[in-house]
């Protein structure tokens, strides 16, 4: 097998066409869906965001407090992606979804290129890696959820950096070095995860490919010096934006919850949880056991990597690096993240997909084809299960927005809209934190004034301030009628219009639900909405 520094012939065109075709087919059914959850807030925010104000996002957090509290996130490149799409597509969610899919296809292509190089041009191994990444169920959320593009952008930048850096190391070419550093700079300002790529690449060079000529190490050193300059620039920007808040959070090594999340990440990688239609594991061994397993995986991986380095076995070194070492470096790094989400696995699975391809390439018999076929069938089945609720929720959201667009202009002046959609459905976002932006521009024309929108707390973009900001009882009492809308667990949309007199007649039942002296709460509002929609003779239903 050629070493990883040699340049095998260019991969056959059919490999890329087939892999990208499978990836497109896997997500094509999601393109017809509407906006989900945070999408409404970010699209609304950047729809009319001035181009002249964009540069200041390099030294300000990108939400600028829209959620009611500052995010420690410096993401001007992600903001730019929203700004461009918002100008192009407005309220057409399909355009944003196509952008997400194109970014995903870019990462599939980058995984294919990297595996082709490292496997010495092994066709089955390269195809296996590309398809494994294309179909992995952990990717359903970042591709199907428009706001998930922050992970897509940063991962694509990281893989472009890696491919160009390997090319620079092997053959030089200033354009490769410049392109690699430009990709890294864009990636770190899309999402912080791109910072994982340079140290991982340096570790691979040191542990797997150290026995190269002096001129190669000079090139590598120059590139790493450029990486340091990018890191310093990014650090300065973060400190300008956040001051001391720019520091990395303390390790969660001792956190039991962090180790339980690690087990759930492993169950998504396998993947087991998607097939069980579960979000996180509910039955787990103790954190001490999980911690011991983590230490064992790290120790075994380091031992095997050391053995490969001692024997100068690049094939084994690359295989161990893109399986055990990559796992420890990327998924282990998620110990620092304080909440669980399958989309956090998007970048980690790039290296693991490469490792899968290298494992297939290392088995020189029919067993390699069996491993590839079995693994890809398992991933494909899990993808089908995982993507279904995202397709369904996207369609529900689109129908809900269309219903509001049709019914709101028919309301009397000063009438309100009461929305009781589901925040989540089948453990997947629906209208979590979506309002009142979901009833504003560009989603509704003419937009509805926020003072005329009443939702349950979980739909409000600042749920902790829901009662204070909304004052639901007072808003109902001063309204000149209401459009009442909800969604059911089955995805059905129910709606009806209450005249001013009908609303006044229904309000005592709502006021009675606020009988604890602490005002009206979301469950009480939802119960009232359900009663109204079940009993009102003019209620309409959209399956």
Can I get a quick summary?
It contains 20 helices and 7 strands. It has 543 residues and is mainly α. The longest helix has 42 residues, at 366-407.
Fold and architecture overview:
With 543 residues, this protein is mainly α. It contains 20 helices and seven strands. The protein has helices at residues 13-27, 38-47, 76-89, 93-118, 123-135, 140-144, 149-171, 174-188, 197-207, 214-242, 256-269, 273-276, 287-311, 314-331, 348-362, 366-407, 466-470, 472-477, 500-513, 522-535, and strands spanning 416-420, 424-425, 428-429, 453-455, 482-487, 493-498, 540-542. Strands 4-1-5-6-7 form a five-stranded mixed sheet, with helices on both faces. Strands 2-3 form a two-stranded antiparallel sheet. The relative contact order is 0.11.
């Amino acid at each position: 097998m050629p070493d990883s520094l040699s340049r095998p012939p260019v991969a056959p065109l059919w490999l890329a066409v087939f892999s990208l075709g499978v990836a497109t087919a896997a997500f094509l059914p999601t393109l017809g869906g509407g906006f989900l959850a945070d999408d409404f807030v970010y699209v609304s925010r950047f729809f009319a965001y001035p181009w002249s104000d964009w540069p200041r996002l390099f030294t300000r957090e990108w939400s600028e407090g829209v959620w009611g509290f500052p995010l420690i996130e410096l993401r001007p490149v992600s903001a730019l992606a929203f700004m461009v799409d918002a100008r192009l597509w407005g309220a057409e969610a399909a355009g944003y979804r196509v952008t997400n899919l194109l970014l995903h296809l870019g990462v599939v292509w980058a995984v294919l290129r990297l595996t082709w190089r490292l496997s010495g041009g092994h066709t089955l191994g390269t195809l296996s890696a590309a398809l494994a990444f294309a179909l992995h169920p952990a990717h359903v959320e970042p591709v199907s959820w428009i706001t998930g593009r922050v992970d897509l952008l940063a991962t694509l930048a990281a893989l472009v950096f890696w491919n160009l850096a390997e090319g620079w190391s092997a053959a030089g070419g200033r354009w490769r070095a410049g392109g690699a550093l430009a990709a890294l700079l864009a990636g770190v300002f899309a999402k912080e995860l791109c910072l994982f790529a340079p140290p991982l690449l340096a570790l691979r060079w040191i542990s797997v490919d150290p026995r190269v000529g002096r001129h190669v190490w000079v090139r590598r050193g120059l590139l790493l010096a450029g990486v340091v300059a990018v890191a310093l620039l990014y650090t300065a920007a973060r400190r300008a934006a956040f001051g001391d808040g720019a520091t990395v959070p303390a390790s969660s090594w001792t956190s039991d919850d962090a180790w339980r999340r690690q087990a759930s990440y492993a169950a998504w990688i396998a993947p087991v949880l998607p097939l069980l239609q579960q979000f996180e594991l509910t039955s787990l061994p103790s954190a001490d056991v999980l911690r011991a397993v983590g230490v064992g995986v790290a120790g075994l991986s380091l031992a095997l990597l050391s053995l490969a380095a001692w024997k100068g076995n690049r094939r084994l070194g690359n295989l161990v690096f893109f399986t055990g070492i990559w796992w420890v470096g990327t998924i282990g790094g998620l110990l620092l993240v304080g909440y669980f989400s399958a989309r956090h696995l998007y970048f980690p699975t790039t290296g693991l997909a490469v490792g899968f391809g290298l494992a297939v390439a290392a088995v020189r018999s029919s067993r390699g084809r069996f491993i590839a076929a079995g693994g890809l069938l398992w991933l494909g089945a899990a993808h089908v299960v995982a993507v279904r609720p995202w397709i369904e929720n996207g369609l529900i959201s689109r129908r809900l927005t269309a219903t509001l667009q049709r019914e709101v202009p028919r309301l009397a002046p000063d009438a309100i809209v009461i929305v009781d959609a589901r925040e989540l459905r089948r453990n997947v976002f629906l209208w979590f934190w979506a309002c009142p932006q979901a009833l504003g521009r560009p989603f509704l024309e003419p937009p509805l004034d926020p003072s005329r929108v009443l939702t349950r707390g979980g739909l409000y973009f600042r749920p902790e301030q829901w009662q204070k900001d909304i004052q639901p009882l007072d808003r109902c009492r001063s309204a000149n009628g209401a459009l009442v809308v909800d969604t059911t667990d089955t995805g059905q949309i129910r709606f009806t219009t209450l005249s001013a007199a009908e609303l006044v007649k229904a309000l005592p039942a709502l006021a009675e639900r606020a009988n604890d002296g602490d005002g009206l709460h979301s469950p009480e509002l939802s119960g009232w909405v359900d009663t109204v929609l079940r009993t009102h003779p003019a209620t309409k239903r959209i399956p």
